[in-house]
Amino acid sequence: MAIYHLAVKTISRGKGQSAVASSAYRSGEKLYDKRYEQTKNFTNKKGIAYSETQLPSEAPLDYLDRETLWNAVEHAEKQSNARLAREVEVALPKELSLNQHKRLLHNYIQENFVSKGMCADWSIHDKNDGNPHAHIMLTVRSIKKNGSWAPKRKSSYRLDDSGNKIPIIDPTTGKQKIGARNAKQWERESISYNNWNDKENIELWRKNWAKACNKLLGQAKKIDHRSYERQGRIQIPTKHEGYYARKLESKKAGASEIVSYNKKVREHNRYLQFLLLEWQKVQEMITKVKQQIQKQKNLEQERIDDILRRAKRAITDSRTANTTVRETDSKDQRSAGTDTKTLIRETRAKQRDFEVKRQFAEAEREKREAKQSGSDPSRKQKTKKKHARSTTRNKGISR
Asked: Alpha carbon of 242 to those of 89, 103, 146, 169, 306: distances in Å?
């Protein structure tokens, strides 16, 4: 599985190092160091798979020769503790071939270093021990357009927050100081000629190396420049073993502390992975139980809602039925009252008709009796009295 490793170091005289000797060792070549008048010969070094030099457009073509390049660097640096070069060491994905390693490194170095003005001298080391890696030596001075080395630092005007130059104030007069030829004086500061030393660059280089490798690796083998903590992974990081640690372990001359430490870390990580898998199973079980409980709650709530809907519907139907009954009763009562009055009127009308018919019949009867009896006064008197009693009785019935 591909691993991520990128380390940035400095090569300096303060550490007793030489740029020429460092290049000779990493490239496995024989180089002459003019400063120390010594030949550095590492042609017997094994595991050098490939070496190359890349230059920016401003650099002289002579610098394609690494001996010329690094002797020029040594000559430009005068201080006894001067920084001579920057080294970037990267682990190469063992899943890739040598040609892929070459193309990967060339493109990465061109985009991140050479295009910024650095000269790059790099070599691939691979002893077929599962640890292919590359050493990239970079110059720390910029090169001017005329091909000469630029200073590491330059003087510049100090600017305020608004980007304006800050005047030098004379404390005696309280006004800006005036120099030779009446030139106004401004505060100055020494700054780096380039921004290659900025800490943000290291993070950018690390990120871009992961991106460059991942373009050639499969999805399952992608690498990440971030630490396990930044990735949110519960895993203990191993230490970079390096050549000497592996050599010591392979020859069994004595257990390497780094190799032994990494073995223990891998065992702990395997146990951590086992615990994480078990914990994931527990989490999945908890999730399922929660889903089942929620599902049961939803069913119970649906039942309660259904009961409430039915009860509400029953109450509504009952109220509607009561209202209908009351309306029907009221109609019946109104209808009954109307029928009674009509009956009374019809009864009285019939009584009046009966009385008219009776009176008419009585008059006809009296006429017949008068004809039969002639003119008998006493009979007429009796007939009148009988008629009066009959009328009185009919009036009483009418009331």
From this structure: 11, 24, 41, 57, 73
The enclosing H or E element of 280 equals helix 257-373
Whether the CB-CB separation of 30 and 39 falls below 8 Å is answered with: yes
Find the helix or strand (DSSP H, E) in which 32 lies: strand 30-33
Which candidate, 293, 307, 11, 248, places its Cα nearest to that of 135? 11
Per residue, the 3-state secondary structure of 56-105, as one string, reads CCCCCHHHHCHHHHHHHHHHHCCCCCCEEEEEEEEECCCCCCHHHHHHHH
Q: Give the CA radius of gyration of the chain.
A: 60
CA 296 to chain centre: 32
Q: How far apart are CA 353 and CA 344, in angstroms?
A: 14
Q: In which element (H, E) is residue 125 found?
A: strand 120-125
Q: Which of 114, 197, 187, 212 is nearest to 153 (CA)?
A: 197
d(CA 1, CA 219): 12
Tens digit of pLDDT for each residue in 34-59? 999 999 999 999 999 999 999 999 99
d(CA 282, CA 284) in angstroms, rounded, equals 5
Q: Which residues, 6 or more positions from 49, have their beta carbon under 8 angstroms from its beta carbon?
A: 98, 101, 123, 124, 125, 126, 132
Continuous segment of H or E residues that includes residue 374: none
* Mean model confidence pLDDT for the chain: 83
Q: How far apart are CA 136 and CA 123, in angstroms?
A: 7
Predicted pLDDT at 350: 82
138 vs 126: CA distance, rounded Å = 21
Q: How far apart (Å, rounded) are the C-alpha atoms in residues 193 and 164?
A: 20
Rounded Cα–Cα distance for residues 172 and 180 (Å): 18
